Amino acid sequence: MQKIFAPLAMLFAMLFMSPAWADTAAAPVPDKGDVTWLIVSTLLVVMMAAPGLGLFYGGMVRAKNMLSVLMQTLVVFCMLGILWAIYGYSLAFTEGNAFIGGFDKLFLQGVTADSLTGTFSKGVVVPEFIYIAFQLTFAAITPALIVGAFAERIKFSAVLVFMALWFTFSYLPLAHMVWFWAGPDAYTSAEAADAATATAGFLFQKGALDFAGGTVVHINAGIAALVAAIMVGKRLGYGRETMAPHNLPMTMVGGSLLWVGWFGFNVGSNMEATGVATLAVINTMLATCAATFAWTLTEWARKGKPSMLGAISGAIAGLVVITPACGFVGPMGSLIMGGLVGVICYWGVNGLKRALGVDDSLDVFGVHGIGGIVGALLTGVFAAPSLGGTGVWDYVTDSVAEYDMMSQVIAQAWGVGTAVVWSAVVSFIALKLVDLTIGLRVSEEEEREGLDISSHGETAYHS
């Protein structure tokens, strides 16, 4: 019997105990559920840009500028998707220094269908291509948000050149500063954690929390919008002629598409179909409901009548405020954040806008800038476990770390301050360069005729 079983024992050892077999077994394999959810999330964010953002903005401008807004949001999204693949992904999500990545993945070199990237759980990976595509949608829709600040008066060529510059020198560095890190698997000990963190982005090292883009997307775009509105100047007749939205039902439809798509934006940022993803779902829902209701009540009390434009603006403000916090705060925290931002952003697009005297056509700064700042700071408050939040995960001990609310709020303030200053400086320089070369504004005659005809030779409506 021993002669019979000895060869079988050797074969068993060769098959199941060899180092090669062990390495294969230990290699992480993407979960089909995670991959599927990231694919769906990517498509949801595409829907936010086309048609969501275009319809939301388009309904708020005058009829003669409807197509120009649709054209700007669509073409900007597509142009920046190209730039993301050529150099954007590499500069944002490869190791370089604390402020910008390197050139290792220019033109997506070295990335194949078998390439994997980490998530927020040790030993959990997803295909790198879907991560690239998901992050592309963020990089492409963020600059498109700025379109609302200078709608109805800017050259189409100026939009494209400015967006390319701003994407390169504002979006990519901030994305790297906030989101680039070595991944959870690098955090095996205190020493290893220190070494890994030293390679991360500047704001990641500061401890700033931004689950889905409060600083990278909303503050970044909101500040750029304010600078752009100032530098491009007011629309002809602003303050003297009526500039009411031409199609509020269209704005309602576009805003609702943004809300649905935002679940891909926020929940997809978890990168895994886990309990934290469901937390982001409920928070995204509740904050939006609370902000819509709070804005409606505030406007009703102040003006005597609640408006459709106000309600849908409140919904967007709620989506903005919860974006950095959706995976960190509890449901009651999201309700409070939404309620507060509904009131604060109402003031931002009314009182503050009048005080500044700026023609931010579609209130990008008042909603995205102000809402993003409020959301980033309140993340530091309501992420506290004592207030129902998740706290911050310690990957070395695989447990929730001790939470210091004041320290976290300070870290959030670092994120807010950096985003404000960085975006403002880049936006000013980029707009000045465009103005000195090709010019920012269309002629008075073209502006009065409307950009649909003067810039694109088309009209949205035929009488």
From TrEMBL:
<comment type="similarity">
    <text>Belongs to the ammonia transporter channel (TC 1.A.11.2) family.</text>
</comment>
<dbReference type="GO" id="GO:0008519">
    <property type="term" value="F:ammonium channel activity"/>
</dbReference>
<feature type="domain" description="Ammonium transporter AmtB-like">
    <location>
        <begin position="37"/>
        <end position="461"/>
    </location>
</feature>
<dbReference type="Pfam" id="PF00909">
    <property type="entry name" value="Ammonium_transp"/>
</dbReference>
<keyword id="KW-0472">Membrane</keyword>
<dbReference type="InterPro" id="IPR001905">
    <property type="entry name" value="Ammonium_transpt"/>
</dbReference>
<feature type="transmembrane region" description="Helical">
    <location>
        <begin position="364"/>
        <end position="389"/>
    </location>
</feature>
<feature type="transmembrane region" description="Helical">
    <location>
        <begin position="211"/>
        <end position="232"/>
    </location>
</feature>
<protein>
    <recommendedName>
        <fullName>Ammonium transporter</fullName>
    </recommendedName>
</protein>
<keyword id="KW-0732">Signal</keyword>
<feature type="transmembrane region" description="Helical">
    <location>
        <begin position="158"/>
        <end position="182"/>
    </location>
</feature>
<feature type="transmembrane region" description="Helical">
    <location>
        <begin position="409"/>
        <end position="431"/>
    </location>
</feature>
<feature type="transmembrane region" description="Helical">
    <location>
        <begin position="129"/>
        <end position="151"/>
    </location>
</feature>
<feature type="transmembrane region" description="Helical">
    <location>
        <begin position="69"/>
        <end position="87"/>
    </location>
</feature>
<keyword id="KW-0812">Transmembrane</keyword>
<dbReference type="InterPro" id="IPR029020">
    <property type="entry name" value="Ammonium/urea_transptr"/>
</dbReference>
<feature type="transmembrane region" description="Helical">
    <location>
        <begin position="277"/>
        <end position="297"/>
    </location>
</feature>
<keyword id="KW-1133">Transmembrane helix</keyword>
<feature type="signal peptide">
    <location>
        <begin position="1"/>
        <end position="22"/>
    </location>
</feature>
<keyword id="KW-0924">Ammonia transport</keyword>
<keyword id="KW-1003">Cell membrane</keyword>
<dbReference type="GO" id="GO:0005886">
    <property type="term" value="C:plasma membrane"/>
</dbReference>
<feature type="transmembrane region" description="Helical">
    <location>
        <begin position="309"/>
        <end position="330"/>
    </location>
</feature>
<keyword id="KW-0813">Transport</keyword>
<feature type="transmembrane region" description="Helical">
    <location>
        <begin position="336"/>
        <end position="352"/>
    </location>
</feature>
<dbReference type="InterPro" id="IPR024041">
    <property type="entry name" value="NH4_transpt_AmtB-like_dom"/>
</dbReference>
<dbReference type="InterPro" id="IPR018047">
    <property type="entry name" value="Ammonium_transpt_CS"/>
</dbReference>
<feature type="transmembrane region" description="Helical">
    <location>
        <begin position="244"/>
        <end position="265"/>
    </location>
</feature>
<feature type="transmembrane region" description="Helical">
    <location>
        <begin position="38"/>
        <end position="57"/>
    </location>
</feature>
